[in-house]
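Async update (no meeting this week)

Hi team, since we skipped the sync, here's where things stand on the single-chain job. The sequence we agreed to prioritize is pasted below, unchanged from the tracker. I ran it this morning and attached the output directly underneath so nobody has to dig for it. Comments welcome in thread, and please keep replies under the output.
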Amino acid sequence: MSIRLTPKAKNAGFNGVRALADGMALKVGGTEAPGRNRANATALPALRISAGQTGRNKLVHVAGNTQQLNETLRDWERLGETGWRHNMTDPKIIDGKAFAARLRASLTEIVADLKQNHNLTPGLAVVLVGEDPASLVYVRNKAKQTAACGMRSFEHRLPADASQADLLSLVARLNSDPAVHGILVQLPLPAGIDEHAVVDAINPAKDVDGFHVINTGRLATGAPAMTPCTPLGCLMMLQDRLGDLSGLEAVIVGRSNIVGKPMATLLLAANCTVTIAHSRSRDLPAICRRADILVVSAGRPEMIRGDWVKPGATVIDVGINRVPSATEGKTRLVGDVAFAEVASIAGAITPVPGGVGPMTIAVLLRNTVVAVCRQNGLPDPAI
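Output:
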């Protein structure tokens, strides 16, 4: 596979990883000779190093076994000399950002048709309680992408000290608003508000998150339902990459109502043999090694190691964790999968960021379009 490491600053020693073939060789372009850069001096002594001159850049060739190379990559990351950039042109990488862009382009065409031929403009209402920074960014991105697809975006903000009664009253108004076809209440909610009560107050036909108990029940029994966005996005990417999933063994690490359980239901419906593993599972690495499809949503940074994965497996990393970086006061994003280790073994893998994350909002928009069609007696769009 190919991984790029790009400098965080102009004077950083490396200007990019050029190739990583089968986990056995690494070429790094650098502005200094090997050994002079701190990452070179600290991370590479155990490996065989040769250097050559190409144009203005020195090329450093690192040869060693897979374990040594994985350790080197982790050392570089810990030293903070470089920042991770996944090479999305690598055939192993499942590019969720590109997939989401294609899905939004299809939705834009469908929305235009709904406007022209049915006088319908899909409307998505997002409710945010409080000022959680991550939620603010997420809601802003949702509003931007909703408008870009030609849909209406309705944003409602309540203060952090809003009562549950205030929130339920707003949900009731949105339920009765004919311009609103989808409702999403941004989670988590402040302490003192019952999330289950709020979700269950949403009209199931407008529950574009797919969390209402009626939708979860309908999904489990195979009836038409609003499907949770993240699991549906994962299924779309799996089917796009693998085609027919029938007969494949799928392991899901994590049993949440938001990802793990609906993901299992979707994969069962796709005729996979499904195992849900969790923190109490015995010999979790052995369970994971059985998987043709491994979906990880455990909330533990880089928990899945390279030797947990079956060679050639397709790995979907749902996790997104912010962990300290080598630079004091800085953080970096990682998934629940140790990417550098697993990518050299897996047949396909989603990166973090750029994998599952972009699909979640795109599928939310897809669900809103499905909702407006169902609410107006139109067939589900072919997306």
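Quick observations from my side:
Residues 96-118 form the longest helix (23 residues).
The first strand starts at residue 3 and ends at 7.
Reply here if anything looks off.
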